[in-house]
Amino acid sequence: MVRFVDVPGMQRWVRMTGLEAAITGIAAAIEADFLRWPEFDKSARVANHSEVGVIELMPISDDRTYAFKFVNGHPGNPARGLQTVTAFGVLADVASGYPTLWTEMTILTALRTAATSALVARVLAPQGASTMAMIGTGSQSEFQALAFRAMLGIDRLRIWDTDPAAMDAFERNIRPLGFDVVRAQSAEEAVQGAEIITTCTADKAYATILTDDMVGKGVHVNAIGGDCPGKTELDPRILRRSDIFVEYPPQTRVEGEIQQLAADHPVTEFWRVLRGDAPGRTSAEEVTVFDSVGFALEDFSALRYLADAIEGTDVYQDVDLIADPVDPKDLFALVADAAAVSAHI
């Protein structure tokens, strides 16, 4: 039997745990796994692109546990009443190859993405940062806001989106939670006075959400929107004068903001900063960019954290997903009766 967490089960778990507690717990799991980065068998995600979106498989394992996530990204989906991003994930036992957990990951991905952003910002953002600009207020935005408050104490937000309805929804969801929100009239206005800038847009095209003149000294840019070839958000001049931090360079150079730069442009892998092998922020005036595209290690961490957290709860059900004949060498026994019926037709 395999533990299965469906959407109602995930909702129950989040209510039981609390959103901010879930985010900080996942962040701690991600940090712990980044610290043992060399132990993982890693690869860039396998992506199938179409004119309207991308479908991806994101695998990773250590010597005990294998994980993968199936995820899509279709920016045109909301016009059809569908979500831009959906996902599910699996944990499996390396020793047997048997899956141990199967779960929805649309909600869980939003939690782990926010947890990763805030974990990185806690290391790279300027000391005493109190205000974050959010360019793009879609499905990820509330999770990002909660993560930055839980992990950095930031509760002042300056927001802008090309879709007024998206800003309406964000304010409706976030203001009752105690945030101070300023609704800007442009991206340029939104970034004024912000020490952290989060860009999270879904356009599947080269775009310039932040121009060079919009990013002053000492700012940390949390660029989480770029996640496929041909999709960017930042003016490349920002990148050339910044210190850039990434998850897994072979994937980021294809999908991230740095696809705009030379293949040998220097970047720093974030795990090296956590382990003390590379510097993070080195001065108050430095501009840091987290060129995040989402990496399978973060899903692995979120899945293993969830697997432990749901133990002994009612948020999952056991599903008979794996064929299990009495004789493991006699799979046919499970369908022999069907063969007998066919023989008499």
Task: List strands and helices in order, with pairings.
Elements: E1 2-5, H1 7-17, H2 19-34, E2 46-49, E3 54-61, E4 65-73, E5 87-93, E6 99-104, H3 106-124, E7 131-135, H4 141-152, E8 156-160, H5 164-174, E9 180-183, H6 187-190, E10 196-199, E11 206-210, E12 220-223, E13 232-234, H7 236-240, E14 243-246, H8 249-255, E15 268-269, H9 270-274, E16 288-291, H10 296-309, E17 317-319, H11 336-343
Helix pairs in contact: 2-3, 2-4, 2-10, 3-4, 3-10
Describe, in plain words, how this protein is organized in 3D.
This protein has 345 residues and is α/β, with parallel strands linked by helices. The protein folds into two domains: 2-107 and 298-337, ornithine cyclodeaminase, domain 1, CATH 3.30.1780.10; 126-294, NAD(P)-binding Rossmann-like Domain (Rossmann fold). 32% of the residues lie in helices and 23% in strands. The protein contains eleven helices and 17 strands. The protein has helices at residues 7-17, 19-34, 106-124, 141-152, 164-174, 187-190, 236-240, 249-255, 270-274, 296-309, 336-343, and strands at residues 2-5, 46-49, 54-61, 65-73, 87-93, 99-104, 131-135, 156-160, 180-183, 196-199, 206-210, 220-223, 232-234, 243-246, 268-269, 288-291, 317-319. The strands form three sheets. It has an eight-stranded parallel beta sheet with strand order 9-8-7-10-12-16-14-15. A hairpin with a 5-residue loop joins β5 (87-93) and β6 (99-104). α2 (19-34) packs across α3 (106-124) and α2 packs across α4 (141-152).
